[in-house]
Structure formats: C-alpha cells, structure tokens
Amino acid sequence: MQKSKLNTTLNGLKDFLHQCRRVLMISRKPTRQEYITISKVTGLGICLLGFVGFVIHVPITYLKALIKP
User: Fold this and answer.
1) What percent of the chain lies above the pLDDT cut of 70?
2) Is the pLDDT of residue 1 over 60?
C-alpha cells in the first residue's frame, strides 16, 4: 500500500517537472517594447489601487472626525 502511494507521488512529481520543462522550453525573454508595455500597465494598476484606497480612506477619516470631536 505504501509503495503504490509513493509511486503515485513520484509520478505526479515527474509529470509536474515535465510540464515545467515544457514551459521553460517555449518561454522567451520579453522584448524591450513588451517590457515597457507591461511596466506601464503594472504602474497604472498600482496607481488605480492607490486611488481607490484614497477614495475609501478620505470619507472614513471625515466620518470619524464627525463622530469623535
């Protein structure tokens, strides 16, 4: 029973490593233009999240000031 469980685990690990190898074989380094585009999108996302946090923070701070003088 233990041997079959070990074989199953080893086969799963072997399949995972095979899939990782396949991904690494087809992946490539991004071009400069792709890198710049990814950086812009990431920066825009960070700014958007910061803005949403600010929009949530300001009313809460204002309401706290009204409740506790």
Assistant:
1) 96
2) no
